[in-house]
Amino acid sequence: MGDFWAIYILWLRDLKRYWYDKARIFASLGQPILFLFVLGTALSPSVAAPGGIKFSEFIFPGIISMTVLFTSIFSAISIVWDREFGFLKEVLVAPVSRWSIVIGKALGGSTVAVLQGCLMLLLAPLVGVQLSLLIVIQSIFVMFLIAFAITGLGIVIAARMKEMEGFQMIVNFVIMPIFFLSGALFPMDRLPSWLALLTRIDPLTYGVDMLRGVMLGIHSFSYILNLVVMLGFTFIMFAVAVIEFNLAE
Shortest CA distance to 151 belongs to which of 104, 92, 100, 183? Predict the structure, then answer.
């Protein structure tokens, strides 16, 4: 039971930190809203989206994925912060398994990312996306799947980092290509072959495609393939994260 209590405590700690930091909640919505309304409105007349929908509707699932992506991976920065102030050392010497620490941090970061994504869902009527209760539930599931996988990536990066500056530099180097190659902002059926290959290597591509299929009925890959790739990437990231935590201290 100690491992499950560790997971719960770490999850609750991240959730409380998020809840009491109201500035973080609203500030993290600025960039997605800018992309959605400025970029979406500016390019709508010139970009033909699949299915005859508006460009702003087409990128809406991608912007939600961007919100989940940035929130989940930057939630791992708390690991570096905890290492600097000694809290991580207290957690590591506790009589709990390392996998429970990884799961607890991942659940906390994923929950926070999904809450941010749900705030973006409230903007759906403003861009003309119709959401039923079933679509909202399915969208939350996909957002959690994306968040859990990307939080695992963030934990892998943070497991060995000693300073927050280094973490931010590496994350920015990794996260921008992941986002821009995911197809969040452009249709993937008109790409040159070299770019299409890169998008298929990007794990976020399959999360964005799954979310777009759920919300708009437009997808490039099957739901089974999307799910398998995301689950496989999640498993690999968490296996590496556990190994990193075992070697870190």
Answer: 104
Q: Could you tell me if 102 and 11 are in contact, meaning their C-beta atoms sit under 8 angstroms apart? A: no
pTM of the entire structure? 0.88
Count Cβ atoms within 10 A of the Cβ of residue 137 and give its class: 0-12 exposed, 13-18 middle, 19 or more buried: exposed
Q: Kindly give, in sequence order, each residue whose CB lies less than 8 Å from that of residue 166, ignoring residues fewer than 6 positions away.
A: none
SS3 content of the chain, % helix, strand, coil (to 5): 80, 0, 20
CA distance 212 to 203: 15
Measured CA to CA, the distance from residue 143 to residue 123 in angstroms comes to 16
Q: Express each pLDDT in 201-249 by its tens digit.
A: 999 999 999 999 999 888 888 999 999 999 999 999 888 888 887 775 5
43-44-49 Cα angle (round to 5): 110
Q: Which of 81, 61, 63, 72 is nearest to 218 (CA)?
A: 61
Instruction: Report the C-alpha gap between 104 and 237 in whole angstroms.
Output: 14
Residues 6+ apart with CB under 8 A from 217: 51
Q: Where are the alpha helices (DSSP H) in 55-97?
A: 55-74, 77-84, 87-92
